[in-house]
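Hey,
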Amino acid sequence: MVKRTPEPGAKRRLAEYLATEIGEGGTFTLEQLREAVPHVLDLPRRLRDLKAHGWELATPRETGTGSYQLLKIGEKVWEPRLRRQEMPRLRQARQRAAVLARDGYRCMMCGTGPGEPDASDLGETAHLEVAFRTPIPAGGTDHPDNLLTLCANCHRAFDRGGWGGTADSALEQLQDLSVQQKTVLLAWMAAGQRTLSPVERAWTAYRRLSPEDQELLRRELASEVEQLAGDHDLAR
């Protein structure tokens, strides 16, 4: 017997129907859902999945009427910012860890690392997330080549298609750059993301150490730099 493959976005279509047509406090049956949102397999499981997004539903057994009741509408999972592929938790965690390590634990748009001030100038610290370059509904996959590290602030801008700034404001920022800095920026533009220098990668590795190991590394580096400076003076 051939099994039917669930239609992509079934949970999103189901949630949008419940929010717009049923509403909080409203009741519905599985037969009603099958007619309104066709080609969705295992509806009871799909409804349980919504609980992970803050939705609250009463089952027919709990209502005693043979119908479900929508108690609370949770996250609007059909919105672009939440349109991410639902991967098994362990696989998702492994994917996230691999992408973060590959990207040097830095936002690929603004370059900030975890715990550093983010680019919004709001006094907040950066929180790193893994985003899809091409969203799943647009034909993207969960392959590492389609994933990149972004801070939460840049992720929101990325989902909107950009910051909404002007070319004039960007050009103004370029005026004070040296030729070398402009060359580096041009390379970032060509790559479509900021690439980290060896010094920045070393800084990221240092930031991930415990306070004790950071202090040890600082002392060792200071001693090495002092020794190198002394050798340089003797060679002059």
